[in-house]
Specification:
Largest sheet: 4 strands, antiparallel
Radius of gyration: 21 Å
Strand order of the largest sheet: 1-2-3-4
Helix content: under 10%
Shape: elongated
Structural class: mainly beta
Distance between the termini: 41 Å
Number of strands: 15
Number of domains: 2
């Protein structure tokens, strides 16, 4: 076994290989690791680019977040998380949910008025709108716990 010690090591590709390729770091910064079975996972494509756990029912509290610079509270049940590092395009994926007592579900709208026509998701952030008040799910309602994750490409 050999050990290389130095301040900088410059190579075209760094590859760990023991008869199978389990990890490759390419010269353009792409990191690929062996995933389940024989498939591989590109780390840049396979990780969440932003996430947060937000509360708005009694007070606006961010319990934890990643790549979130701020969260604007626009109105009852309407918040707008902003990215610290913007997305490359508006073609990213929002995944989330909400929990507020016995009324749990997911409603995420990309426009500030809660409409679902003409969606305008921005590279700088998105809107989350909560609805549900007893049996009437058409009313806007502040939510106790809002977990959201974003997948896509950073700018």
């Amino acid at each position: 076994m050999s050990t290389i010690v130095g301040t900088n090591i410059e190579v075209t590709n760094l590859k760990f290989d023991s008869d199978t390729t389990s990890m490759i770091i390419s010269n353009n910064g792409q990191v690929t690791i062996q995933g389940e079975g024989t498939s591989t996972t590109n780390l840049q494509q396979g990780i969440a680019k932003q996430w947060l756990v937000q509360e708005q029912k009694t007070t606006m509290v961010t319990h934890d977040s990643f790549n979130t610079s701020s969260i604007d509270d626009h109105a009852q049940a309407v918040i707008e998380p902003k990215f610290t590092n913007n997305m490359a395009s508006a073609n990213y994926v929002l995944t989330g949910g909400m929990a507020s007592g016995i009324y749990n579900g997911t409603i995420m709208m990309p426009s500030s008025n809660g409409a679902d026509d003409g969606w305008e998701v921005a590279t700088t952030g998105y809107y989350v709108t909560g609805r549900g008040n007893g049996a009437n799910y058409t009313l806007f309602s502040d939510i106790e716990r809002i977990p959201v994750a974003v997948h896509g490409d950073l700018a």
